[in-house]
């Protein structure tokens, strides 16, 4: 049985008409991947309006860890709709907000007392973490990292590293935001071991406090435990712990941005657990609500209480629907063993990536943590020159065969996989087989085009 089933060209006739309508009414600044419109989705499969079925290795960019339309999520949402849809937590409170906050506090790293603020989106969570850090420390400066991604609002866009498409011509940006170096093992200088390179980048971080900004002016350092949009770049434990220790030495808060890495994606509830670091604040969203907008900030009680009543919140923040969906997600992760499944999927994918690496010399690097896996596409393994063009061709070939994949990285040359963790072994293997075929066909086509254009 094949799960992927493409019965029309892409886009099909119905999707083609919808694309035309989209072009007339939706700004071109809103991008899209595959030229198709969803009709139904379940688990790791999406069916479009033309009858094409896709295996989903994107998961709405890391949102669908528990899969599309999980019965427990749908049941929770139906129950909530029957009770009430929204009252505004700052007007008339509801128990699900409290219950979710309590459960998140218990799951978050550290035995200290914690409090939880709920919001709508990942960017809002980061914005509020920054506000809280500044309020608590009475400092203004914020440090993020090269290749980091934190959102599209003014502050989070400022903190984000990649210029195009996120920042180009959208300035001026927010003040008092600084960008520090972050280790990129694949592109480390020749002659350095991974350990030496980590030590080198950590020393550069120390020097940052001498050459760029005084540490006593910095409220917080914000780090993705695994860089998402930056290309699924996994730092070493030495680096993460070294940065954490420097924060402690200088009274700087350490904020872990877990928006893409959280909720079993890396085989743990939160990726920072792999590094034996307990953050002062942590931002969460994406797979937290299984597609219903919700986000949060989890932090030390004394830090979270720095803001006065009315200084935090929002109209839809921690909505009843979002809270009920998130509670269902936590039940699913526990009951279905999705942390363990995340590790298992990661092992299967990385083993297959090893085979790809031996077969295709366009793959320069394979990397990942748990089920957050990626491969970097290059023109030449020796020079490591990125190949965005070939990457896009691989994605297009995969889409044509019924597999949804997506790119990442500052060079746009990283293929990242974020399949739902409820994907079956058969669906996973079929998707990987399609990906292998897509690479094979794309490489041949790419080489032909290069010869023609030479």
Automatic annotation (TrEMBL):
Its Enzyme Commission number?
A: 2.6.1.19, 2.6.1.22
Chain ranges passing through the membrane: none
- Catalytic reactions of this protein: 4-aminobutanoate + 2-oxoglutarate = succinate semialdehyde + L-glutamate; (S)-3-amino-2-methylpropanoate + 2-oxoglutarate = 2-methyl-3-oxopropanoate + L-glutamate
Q: What is a biological process (GO) this protein takes part in?
A: gamma-aminobutyric acid metabolic process
What are the required cofactors?
pyridoxal 5'-phosphate
Record-stated family: Belongs to the class-III pyridoxal-phosphate-dependent aminotransferase family.
Classification from the root reads:
Bacteria, Bacillati, Bacillota, Bacilli, Bacillales
Annotated Gene3D superfamilies: Aspartate Aminotransferase, domain 1, Type I PLP-dependent aspartate aminotransferase-like (Major domain)
Q: In which pathway is this protein known to take part?
A: Amino-acid degradation; 4-aminobutanoate degradation
Give the signal peptide range.
none
The protein's name in its UniProt record: (S)-3-amino-2-methylpropionate transaminase
Could you tell me the keywords of this UniProt record?
Answer: Aminotransferase, Pyridoxal phosphate, Transferase
Q: Does the keyword Cytoplasm apply?
A: no
User: Is Nucleotide-binding set as a keyword in this record?
Assistant: no
Molecular function (Gene Ontology), one example:
pyridoxal phosphate binding
Q: Which organism is it from?
A: Neobacillus mesonae
What Pfam families does the record point to?
Aminotran_3 (PF00202)
């Amino acid at each position: 049985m094949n799960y992927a089933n493409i019965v029309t060209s892409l886009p099909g006739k119905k999707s083609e008409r919808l694309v035309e309508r989209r072009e007339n009414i939706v700004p071109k600044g809103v991008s899209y991947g595959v030229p198709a419109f969803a009709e139904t989705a379940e688990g790791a499969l999406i069916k479009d309006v033309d009858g094409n079925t896709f295996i989903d290795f994107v998961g709405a960019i890391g949102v669908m860890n528990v899969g599309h339309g999980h019965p427990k999520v749908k049941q929770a949402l139906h129950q909530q709709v029957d009770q009430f849809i929204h009252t505004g937590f700052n007007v008339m409170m509801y128990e699900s907000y409290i219950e979710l906050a309590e459960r998140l506090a218990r799951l978050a790293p550290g035995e200290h007392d914690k409090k939880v603020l709920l919001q709508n989106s990942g960017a809002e969570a980061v914005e509020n973490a920054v506000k809280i850090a500044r309020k608590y420390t009475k400092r203004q400066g914020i440090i993020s990292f090269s290749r980091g991604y934190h959102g599209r609002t003014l502050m989070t866009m400022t903190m984000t590293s990649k210029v195009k498409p996120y920042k180009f011509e959208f300035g001026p940006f927010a003040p008092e935001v600084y960008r520090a170096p972050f280790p990129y093992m694949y592109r480390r200088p020749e002659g350095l071991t991974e350990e030496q390179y980590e030590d080198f980048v950590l020393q550069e971080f120390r020097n940052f406090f001498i050459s760029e900004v005084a540490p006593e002016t910095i409220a917080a350092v914000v780090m993705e435990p695994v860089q998402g949009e930056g290309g699924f770049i996994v730092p070493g434990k030495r680096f993460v712990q070294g940065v954490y220790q420097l924060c402690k030495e200088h009274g700087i808060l350490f904020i872990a941005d877990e928006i893409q890495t959280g909720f079993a994606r890396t085989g743990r509830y939160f990726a920072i657990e792999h590094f034996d670091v307990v953050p002062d604040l942590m931002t969460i969203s994406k797979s937290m609500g299984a597609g219903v907008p919700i986000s949060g900030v989890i932090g030390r009680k004394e830090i979270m209480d720095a803001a006065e009543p009315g200084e935090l919140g929002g109209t839809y923040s921690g909505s009843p629907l979002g809270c009920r969906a998130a509670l269902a997600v936590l039940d699913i992760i526990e009951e279905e063993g999705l942390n363990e499944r995340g590790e298992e999927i990661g092992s299967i994918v990385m083993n297959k990536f090893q085979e790809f690496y031996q077969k295709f010399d366009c793959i320069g690097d394979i990397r990942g943590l748990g089920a957050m896996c990626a491969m970097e596409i290059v023109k030449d393994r020796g020079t490591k020159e990125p190949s965005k063009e070939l990457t896009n061709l691989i994605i297009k070939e995969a889409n044509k065969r019924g597999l949804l994949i997506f790119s990442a990285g500052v060079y746009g040359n990283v293929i990242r996989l974020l399949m739902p963790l409820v994907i079956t072994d058969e669906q996973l293997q079929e998707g990987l087989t399609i990906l292998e075929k897509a690479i094979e066909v794309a490489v041949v086509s790419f080489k032909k085009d290069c010869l023609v254009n030479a």
